[in-house]
Structure formats: structure tokens, C-alpha cells
Amino acid sequence: MVYLLCLVLFAIGLYGVLTQRNLIKIIISLAVAESAINIFLVLLGYRVNGTAPIEEGTLEQHAAFVNASVDPLPQAMVLTAIVIGVGVLALSMVIAMRLYHRYGTYDITKIRKLRG
Amino acid sequence: MDVLPLMVALPMAGGFLLPLVPKKRSLVTDVVAVALALALAVIALSLIGSPDRAYHMGGWTAPIGINLVLDGTSKLMLAVIAVVTFSVVLYCPTYMTRFTGKRKFYSLFLMMIAGMNGVVLTGDLFNLFVFLEIASIASYALVAFGCERDELEASFRYLVLGSVASYFLLFGIALLYAKLGTVNMAHLSQKIAEVGGLAGGDVVAAGKASPLLVFATVLFICGLGLKAALVPFHAWLPDAHPSAPTPISAMLSGLLIKAIGVYALARVLFSVIGVHEGGAVSTVLMGLGAVSMILGVLLAVAQWDYKRLLAYHSISQIGYVVLGIGLATPLGVAAGLFHLLNHAVFKSLLFLNAGAVEYRTGTRELGEMGGLNKKMPVTGATSFLASMSIAGIPPFNGFFSKLLIIVACFQAGRWGYALIAVVVSVLTLASFLKVQKYAFFGPLKEKWQNIREVPVLMAASMVLLAVLCLATSVLAFKLFDKDGLEQGLRNDRFLGAAQRSLTDREGYVTRALSPAVEFKPTSTDGTDDGT
Known about the structure:
Chain A is mainly α. Chain A has helices spanning about 1-20, 25-45, 60-70, 70-105, 110.
């Protein structure tokens, strides 16, 4: 159920990318789509009332730890994905800024100079 | 110490360190970049002869750790990337003087190479995503490098579509992880084989394949198809590729769409998901390939902008590669990979030619050129060779790979696709005859009386690629065994090996999950076993 919400969020992001005319809004839509996937990844490893995946106990407590902790792997992946996302976001902002300097507008329909 | 990680580490180190060189020492930057590219080419070519193996990063064996896998297909890709990169780097020192910030250019350039080499080598799906993003982000920035109107706009569009593609890919990876609990490609492949996978079209039709798996496959095809600029997803390419500085156009069209598009797609579909001859995935790939071929060439014929015309041809030629690989027969896959290699060589050469013309005349409009052969003989001659290669005229490499693709279509009983391949080839020839006629032959226009041939380094890089256009034809001769093409393919150690490692799923799993100790360098001193 929660997973479906992620899908909906992703779809909203995609819809925004395809329909928005304002460069900044397109970038925001991209960020929404990206967050949807990041949330999805974190949710995969989530467990209700789970503990942080830091193991301190002895070997005997290992099984109990595995049963109680959340899955750390998606968290690690999401951290990486967020860093990548920030990189893309920063770059897209810079390009949008330079476009604004050149054209004096954020409207993509007024910028469109290249042919199909 | 294995040399595999160096293929990623060397360019990445170069990319981070080059901006530290003082701005005045422009020569140092050039020399370092060329030396790095040369070193990579030497390593990549020496890897062709070395045994297939897996390298486990940090000594953690797969599937827990991340592994780098070297097999026939990655050897071919590494060699193509390294050789074309070296030729293009030779072109840069002179050409890039038009721009400021050469250090930043080389830095991004090397990061892109690190990303591509990483994509080709990695055996981990999430790692593939990371390397793919490294290469992509570097290429977004490189497209916008000139900071002119066209470039910024093309780069923005490329960035938006490229990011969407990456999210599709990440979504697909997340689904596979949700379903199977691992992101190691070999491990995934094992588990997918256990649950049945997409074993041929009939299983999908019967609904036996897990819907999650089908959805993930669709996401991979959409995401990586976008990166490869296959036709319904091609909108960004004709803007992005011509707008970039010429060496980057050559890199993007020649290498990037192949390494992070076609190769990643083929690797994920063949080695992880599993593609079967006549199956659903294979049919989709062939369809996408054929549509790309036709639409790409039709749009190209009408173009008058030299670089834009070449960009449309990239879409068309990538269609050939995907059609060949999509056939999923041994000959089809080998022919597709061969065309990928050939296209990398001649398309980067064509872009460098266009850049050379632009360097001297300052225009990209074919109508304004004319008779340039008289003033720029080297550019004219190399461009002629490359045009004949892409049009598929014997004895150039493009002829052999197209011939093999057509033969493979016939053998698989796909007459329609074979016919399309022939027709598209004729249209390609027509289009390049136009380029030759308007740009290089005919009377020299008044205003070009005073232009000269390009500087020696740029010419050298073009000559090197032109020689390769002829030399790579030799690879095809090995396949024409007296016992037929299949036997030739089985004996071949370069193209044949590349095809075998792509289609052999079990072999890939064994190789990728093999413990690190298996590899013993010849000059072993026993200090580093990695276990």
C-alpha cells in the first residue's frame, strides 16, 4: 500500500517534468520523482519498531539482532542516490540560472530555439 | 595487484588532480591527459589477452562485496573506449584552445571515461547506476561547456531526460532488490534463473513470470533505452550531441551512448534478466532497433547542419547495433557488437571531421561549404573513408558488420528486418554522398580561398581513426571460417569471445562469483591475494 504511494509520487514527478513550462518547476518535479524512489528504497528495508542496524552484541545475540534491525543496505544505497541527486540538482540549477541570464525568462517555450 | 581497478582509478585520479595544475601550465595539462589516455589504451589492449576474471573490491567477495568482472564483452568495450578516447584526446590540445578552462574540460572528460569504464567493468547493479551517473553528470556539464544559448538549452533537456532515465533504472534496481534481496548482477542472475525468469516469450504470455520482474525489465528497457537514444526516447540526442564541443560530440556519439546505453542494456538484459531467441525481450529490442534505424536515417537525410546530420545517423546506427543484439542468436549478437565497435570508430571520426571543418571555416551549414578537399586534403580524405564506412561500402569495416547483421537476420528467418537493414544502408549512403558533394567536392567557394589544413595533432588523430576504419575489417575475416560462420565465431577470440560471454549466463555467474585467488599474475610475489 505504502509502496503504491511511492509509485503515485513518482508519477506526479514525471507528470510535472513533462507538463511544466517553468525551468525551476521542472527541476522541482525531478526532485519529487527522485525522492519517490529514495523513499521506496528506504521503505524496502523498513520494519515497524525496528532498531538501528548497528550490531554490538555477542554472536549469540546475532539472530535476535537480525530479526529486530532494519535492513542497512537500502539505507546505504539511498545515501549514495541522494548524493548523486544533489549533484544533478546543483548542475541543473546552474544551467537554469545561465539560461535565465541569456534569455531573461524561465519559460521553456520561449527558450526553445533548437529544432525538434 | 590486479590492473582492473586502474581502469577506473586512473582517469578518476586524473580528473580530480588536473584542476590543481596552475592555469598557466596549459602544456602540462595536455601532456598529462594524453599520457593518461595512452596508459589506459595500453592497459585495455593488454587486457584483451589476459584471462577472464573477477576482481573483488577491498577483498570482500561477491555477492557481499562489489566486484569488477572482466570477460569477453567488457574487454571489447574497454578496448573500444580506450582507443577512441586516445584518438579524441589527441584532437583536444589544439581544438580546445578556443575555450577557456581547459583544465576543467579535461577533468570532466576524464570523469566521463572513469564512469564509462566503471559501467563496463562493474558486476553490481547499484554500482552500475553510480558509474552511469558519474558518466552522465560529466556529460551534461560537457554539453553545456561553451555556455552559449544552444548549448545550455540542449544540456538542460539532456539533463532532464537523462535524470528521468536514471530514475527508471534506479526504480528497476529497487524492484529487483525488493523481490530478490540482492543487487549483485551474478547473484541476481542466479536467483532469477531459480524463479523461472523471463524464459522466452511463451512464459511471459502464460503469466508465469513474476509481474514485478516484468515491470523491472520494462523499466530497464525504458531507462537504458533513453540513455542509448533508441527511437521513442531519442529526443535529446540531436540537440545534445551537436551542441557539445567537437571532441565531446565524438565521445558522446562514439562511446557514451554505447557504454552507458547499449552495453548496460545488453548486460542487464542478457546476463541478469536473460534473453532468449524469439522471446518477448528479444522482439522488443528488435522492434526498437528497427524503428530507430528507419526514423534516424529519414530525419538525417533532410538535415543541412553537418553535426546534426551526424547525430541523427547515430540514432540510426545504434538501431543496427540493437537489432543485431536483439536477435539473440550468436551471430546476431556478435554482429551487433562488431557494429558497435565500428560505429565508435567511424562516427567519432566523422564528428572530428565536422569539427575540423568548423575549426577552419567557422560554419556547420553544409550549403555554405564546398570544395574543401582542395584546401583540407587530410580532412577530406579521412571524411571520405569514414563516410564510406558508415554507408557500408566494402572493404571498410561498416560493410562487414552490416553484412553480418543482415546474414544473421536471414539465418533467424527475419526477412523483414534484413530488408530494412539494406534499405537503411542505401539511405545512409545517399545522405553521406550529400555531405561529400556539398562539403568536400565541387568548386571551392571564394570566401574559403585562405583556409588551411588543420594543425598536425588534429590531423594525426583523424588519420589514426581512418586507419582503424580499415584495420578493424580484419576482425571480420577471422569469422569467415571454411566450416561456416558459426564455427568461425566459436574459434574467434575477440568478437566471438565477446558474444559468448554476453549470451552465456551461467558462465557469467561462475566467473563473477569466483573467488579472487583464482587470478595469479605472471610476476606473482604472493603478497596480495585479496582474501
